[in-house]
Amino acid sequence: MSPSIAGVSIWLWALIVLLLLAQGTWLFTDARRRGAAPWFWGIWGLIQFPFPLLMYWMFVRLNPSDPEPDPQSDFREESDPHDKLD
To answer: Looking at the 3D structure of the chain, how many domains does it have?
Structure first.
């Protein structure tokens, strides 16, 4: 007999936790990149599945009034101190 919590297998609980963490992380990072309330989406994504993901896709990803973010905006240009001329 495998260990269980409230009659549900430990492996199922682990899968649920991993699923919620992955969803919340993805919602937070994508919303931050798009400037769409990342903390709200990330926290909501940690407590429910799949409703936050569906709502995010409907209101943020499929919203035609918002422009697609620049993929290069995630990268920061770091200046090399040796490139500066005195």
So the answer is: 1
